Amino acid sequence: MSEIVVIGAGVGGLAAAVRLAAAGHQVRVFEQAQTAGGKLGVISHEGFVFDTGPSLVTLPDILEDLFAATGVSVRDVLDLQRLDTAAQYRFPDGTVLDMPGELAQIPAAIDAALGAGRGAEWSAFLRRAERMWDLSREMFLESPLTVSAMRRRPPPPLSALGAISPLRSMRGLGRRYLKDERLRMLLDRYATYTGSDPRRAPAALATVPWSEQAYGSWYVAGGLGRIATALQERLDALGGRIEFDTEVTAITTDPSGRVDGISLADGRRISADTVVANADARTVYGSLIRTPTATRMAKRVRTPTPSFSGFVLLLAVDDPPADQPHHQILFAEDYDAEFDALFGRNGGPRPVERPTVYISAPDDPAIVPGPDTGAWFVLVNAPRHDPAAGMDWDAPGLAEDYADRILQIMADRGVDVRARVRHRQILSPAELERRTLTPGGSIYGSSSNGPRAAFLRPGNESRIPGLYLVGGSSHPGGGLPLVMLSGKIVAELIGPAEESVSDA
Length: 504
Ligand SMILES: Cc1cc2nc3c(=O)[nH]c(=O)nc-3n(C[C@H](O)[C@H](O)[C@H](O)COP(=O)(O)OP(=O)(O)OC[C@H]3O[C@@H](n4cnc5c(N)ncnc54)[C@H](O)[C@@H]3O)c2cc1C
Known about the structure:
Blueprint: E1 3-7, H1 11-22, E2 26-30, E3 42-45, E4 48-51, H2 60-69, H3 74-77, E5 80-82, E6 85-90, E7 96-100, H4 106-114, H5 118-141, H6 147-152, H7 158-164, H8 170-177, H9 181-191, H10 207-215, E8 218-220, H11 225-237, E9 241-243, E10 248-253, E11 259-264, E12 269-271, E13 274-277, H12 281-288, H13 292-301, E14 309-318, E15 327-330, H14 335-343, E16 357-360, E17 373-382, H15 398-412, E18 421-427, H16 429-436, H17 453-456, E19 467-469, H18 480-494, H19 498-503
Parallel strand pairs: 1-2, 1-13, 2-9, 6-15, 13-19
Antiparallel strand pairs: 3-4, 5-8, 6-7, 10-11, 11-12, 14-17, 14-18, 15-16, 16-17
């Protein structure tokens, strides 16, 4: 029976592994950390359970499709809950917008919070975004972005290209449809879902707010970390294996240049003619594999601007405010200054002085030690850990001081929990890099800055025979739904095991 090696048990690696195991392959996953999930991490402290990465599930049908491929319904293994209020947005002028979780209710809520006519503005924008989504979902997200795959499909009509506006930026699209500064700010925020700058990210990212608002915002009872646990259990049930605490140090090739196995930090060598790498593409081509093709790919992978990182504060809160929303966004006074700092415009990369603050405070008894306590996750966008460029998140005192500043900003905006914090833990971009071996702690692989970014993202089928890439640093990009789709694309490219084909 053919054996496939997967490097990394992040969501991308797990998604590929469970699908391949369900297709009859023997699958062995090697993970350097002690648990599965990668960026979808969990930290527990005295009865508080914190998600350290994702806090929002979008496009639940992709999750459903993934579990269905393993023989179960997602509803049987996870308690998925649709949120009535997707998020509370607080703008610098004091406006508060509680965004409904149902699409039909959104225009009225925007009118009520921002003024008559604003809801219609947003609806007109969403209609355009929906057209983009319909045109791009199958073509760009669910298929490998390769020349041969594109040749197999009929070319898109010119009207489709017009609707997607490949040369327009997200900011440009906002200016076209939205007169209200607050709505433009809201749209800008969706560029951050791919670690990008809205002034440079393509208009096609308008599909992100559309898909979130059309398909809803979701939570997993007990925390999103349960997705990784459930995938690990499915892999186990299908006969796949994961070895934790096992770092892969090299992908090896035979004299013809075809993949023939991997080397491990403990000195072992594992033979395999198919290797699926969930490690960051820059690491795969830059250091794990050493062939002339890999060297060329390493150069190409370094071309797009990497996604920014995140600075996370986990707060064990006593007596949290009763009306604290599940998701809350405190918008920065100067959003452009935030993107300038993240990408090092007008000076090198630097912590954002007054960043937009995102708070996730699930009302879920399963993640707290008792009543009147809260397990809060606070996230601000942060430049990557890059000491060579002058951004050293390990510099003495920096992370602690920055955490204090974030708590102060929250207090300035009416969310003062400083006296109620029983315990806090900081996860800086440097820590994210160490935990997941992601260079610089980039959240989403490469950013979508610039119209060519999607095409510069490494493909799922490598030019090195036998090697496949899965996860946020490869096509179609970062974020849980896309990472799961990359697992599906890779499993389809590899196909079922020969035994299952002949059995069928
Ligand atoms: C703070 C934060 C908030 C986020 N919020 C959201 C959100 O709300 N919604 C959403 O959809 N997405 C969110 N994301 C993004 C989402 O978490 C990622 O896109 C996704 O989890 C990435 O999965 P992956 O499999 O591509 O990579 P990873 O999770 O990085 O997995 C890679 C795995 O490979 C392992 N590995 C690497 N190198 C080696 C090696 N040499 N040997 C062995 N193992 C190795 C790593 O340890 C890791 O487990 C967030 C991410 C972060 C960090």
